[in-house]
Amino acid sequence: MSQQNRSTTNLLRGTLAIGAVGVVAAFLKASPERFWANWLLWFVLLFTVGVGALFLVALEHLVNAKWSVPIRRIPERIATLLIPVVPIGLLAIGALPVLFPGTRPEALHNKILAGKAFWLSLPFVSVRTVLVMALLILGLAVLVGGSLKQDQTKDPAFNIRARKFAPAFMAIFALAITLVAFDWISGLTPEWYSDIFGVYLFAGAFLGGLAATSLAVLHLKDQDRLEGVRKDHLYNLGGFLFAFTVFWSYIGFAQYMLMWYANLPDEVVYFQTRLTGGWHVVTVLLAFLHFVMPFFALVTRDAKGDGSRLRRVAVLMLAAHILDIYWLIFPILPGGPHFSWPEASFALLFLSGALLWVRGAQQKGEDMPVGDPFLKEGLEFRL
Amino acid sequence: MIDKYVSPSELKRLISALLVVAGFIAIMALFGFLVVPGTRNVNVPEEAAAVEAPQGETGWLDPTDYPATAQVVLPPIDPRTVMTPNPELMTRGKAIFAQTCATCHGPDGKGNGPGGAGLNPKPRNFTQQAGWTNGYRIENIYKTLDEGVKGTGMVSYNYLSKKDRMALVHVVQSLGAFDHGPEDPKALEALAKLFASAGETIPNKVPVAFAEKRIEAEFHPAPALPDVSKNPALRESVLDPARAAQTLAGIPRWREDDKAFAAAVAAGVPGNGFAPAVVTYAPAQWKELQSALTGR
Amino acid sequence: MSSGKSFAVLGLFDSPDALMGAIPKVRGKQLGTLEAYTPYPIHGIDDALGLRRSPLGGMVLVMGILGAITAFGFEYWISAIDYPIVTGGKAPSSWEAFVPIMFEVTVLFATFTAGLGMLLLLNKLPFFGHPVLSSDAMKAITRDRYALAIESEGEGFDAEAAKAALLAAGATQIEVLPEPDRGPFLSADYILRVAGGIFAACVVAGLAMFGAVKLFPVLAPMSHMEDQPRLNAQKADPFFKDGFGMRMPVAGTVARGYLPLGVASQDEAASLVNPLPRSPEVLAMGKKIFHNRCELCHGALGNGVPTLTAAYGAKPANLQAQQFRDYPDGKIFWVITMGKNAMPSHAADLTETQRWAVVDYVRALQRAQNATDQDVKEAGAR
């Protein structure tokens, strides 16, 4: 490990410590609603980035893609974020009685909530979350663990196994992302519902995973650890990123427009809170950062294969994804959007924690899946 | 056979030229059959307009465009010719009855005409003795025709000439088979005096287009309101300043009497230029609006 | 028709690698424009041939943005300017409702630009006279051979040198191609074929449709839309207790932009004020409406001389009568709005402005039939 790397690690440890102190202070001083909203934000964020990266891996196995074999190890490493997400998610159960009206006893007096009382109850939500986490860890073990093992064994049977497992994983993935969307975000306002909400979170999650992957690929490429990964591979990553900004905005706008048109009181309250009282600024900013800017930054052919531009767009995309989750969760707190020391310390703790984890994961296995028989074909990939 | 005279390529060219010509002819035919006949009918010959064919209700092609005529005063009628029925009078009366009265009172005066079905109270049944509002003697029926019966569908028919009204009186009496009572010589004498005193006046008439010009010229636009955009009270209450000004000009004493002002303005929103919201105003708001409009 | 001059020299190669290897060798000699013909796209060949970047992407972007602007302009003009209408309680200029159309038109413009721009504008198709199409090598090119052509750029084309260069680069077969046939595109032959093709398609489609309808007379596409449980206006419907299909609005409903008349009787209506100026426009409007709606019963001069009246069981008022001349404007307006006796209400058909305009025209009619002496003098009585 070089001197610079070590100093970066030390810096991250420092910010981690500061963040941890801030988070403890927030637990003691700030209101429990605010504390748990922050906790939920980082739980959902790390979950979506990890699961988005894992989805990219599974997608490759599912369609037997060759171009992405040389860079597959990167999303595999990012997907290991799901391991720290398990304790974070289990702790988030503490947020249930605080933030989620469906778990409180007075929900039984509400006609709508009484009908879904069991579904929204604390035990069932916890069981579901644990189940989903377990299934995802299983998927991680099969896809990522098997791939790491293949580095030594060079056994092509893994490719066949992974390809057979990938469809099953897709079902798990769909279940997991939908349940997280409905339980942990939609559940904050249980009288409001949107059928497409799971798809909306999926679009954001895939973009988050993709942006993190692109960023890590470019980072390793700068260190010459990904020899043979070329513009063509970057172009595909950029193309994905470009396409899914449109997908995200399509889903987001479709959800908005239908509710705007129907103007039903129980539906429109969701956008009512997000278009008034200071939140409208965040909404416009989100549309701008999550769609307009990345769309026009990546629209030309050169931009998609251009490493420096792709890096900037990936950073932007991750920031926009954080803003997206913030926009989903924080409007339940009264008094408009707020950002202050509790939010900052949470960001410090979880961002540096996630970076440290990913940096640690970078040491796992080879930088490329050297045991994969398709690696050569992937390296030869030309547009 | 044919390729002795033309080569295949020439034949193709000929046929394609033929197709183009046929298509052209088809389009022209479409025009000829469908479009041209329509255009022909638009052109009305010029001389047709010049003919002053007497038709329509005023005897002129455009019933509202007749020559102006000064008023004519007809000489008074001789009362003796109308006080008692005579055949000429009855014929005329029956024609007017069929035209004017029968739709409500029915052809036989039984009060069962189709036009009366929806009226409340129902039209008078002339064949029965009971219930006549003004009575059934000559002077009573004449009074009804002259003034109408207030609160019912029976309006005044004083636009009919006196002679026509008397003809109707006799027709109405003839429809009821009961005794119409002893005559009141005093009342009859008064009627006869009335008939002898003045003749009918046929009023001045001018073409409608000319009348339009006259009433346009006589119209004085109302004085403009204070600038609406500057005063927030007015901006909320006034939709159309021009109309509002016109409305106010038509409300007597609106500056002085705030109750009358409020009632008259609220009755006509929003067509009168005021916003619908004014109907919910409290008296204090009305006063505020009133003072804002007077420019005080 | 070919003039006998050679236009291009075609060299065939056995593998894509041989072709890719030959390109730099031939390209260096600068004998003419290089063009490759292969059965499938080969990675990197556009860079090797030195082809310039296609402008299609830029065209598509510009046209896509243009499509979005066009759609927005159309929608905005229709919904907010030309015929503003409140739908679902939304403002006529709501941009949210325009977005789906904008999206579709953007896609339409972009795809049409991409497809037609590529084929017609950039590739200059259709061009059936291209010599490669009628070359002997054509069959091989479309199957398993890879061709490199050196095409003439003008007068100084040296076919022999091109031949030699291609052979030196490893071509297995050489073919010299004649000048392309740049005959007129719309030849008689072409017109005949197209017209015949369209005619044949019509005949086939017509016969097929005829047969389908004959054989499957009850074949109803999208029967769900035909059978949907809908209510026709003014039809009975057993669903509701009173048996009426049409429903009354909820009690107290007030239509947007309308208020019920604030007076309860005709006498009270005397206080209503005509808010319109007596301008030529207002009188023209009143005249038109009177002509269309009132004249049939009240007569062209409003004197109740009937056109339909007796036969239809109504005795319309003589608007020239003294009592109606003495009416204030508001009372006439009230009658038009509420109806009177056998006269129906016209409130549903005429706006408040139109009703006031009719009142003004009735005033003009009354003035025409009961003019002042001054009027007659000025009009020039006979």
Automatic annotation (TrEMBL), chain A:
Highest taxon above the source species: Bacteria
Keyword DNA-binding annotated: no
Keyword Transmembrane helix: yes
Membrane-spanning residues: 12-30, 36-57, 78-100, 120-144, 165-185, 197-218, 239-258, 278-301, 313-333, 339-358
Keywords: Membrane, Transmembrane, Transmembrane helix
Name recorded for this polypeptide: Membrane protein
Organism in which the protein naturally occurs: Geothrix rubra
TrEMBL record, chain B:
UniProt xrefs under InterPro entries: Cyt_c-like_dom, Cyt_c-like_dom_sf
Pfam family membership, one: Cytochrom_C
Domain of life: Bacteria
Boundaries of every Cytochrome c domain copy: 88-176
PROSITE patterns for this protein: CYTC (PS51007)
Record SUPFAM superfamilies: Cytochrome c
Keyword annotations of the record: Heme, Iron, Membrane, Metal-binding, Transmembrane, Transmembrane helix
Coiled-coil regions listed: none
Annotated TM spans: 14-36
Protein name: Cytochrome c domain-containing protein
Gene source species: Geothrix rubra
Automatic annotation (TrEMBL), chain C:
Top-level taxon of origin: Bacteria
Keywords: Heme, Iron, Membrane, Metal-binding, Transmembrane, Transmembrane helix
SUPFAM superfamilies for this protein: Cytochrome c (SSF46626)
Pfam families, per the entry: ActD, Cytochrome_CBB3
Ranges that cross the membrane: 56-78, 98-122, 190-216
Keyword ATP-binding: no
Annotated protein name in UniProt: Cytochrome c domain-containing protein
Species, as recorded: Geothrix rubra
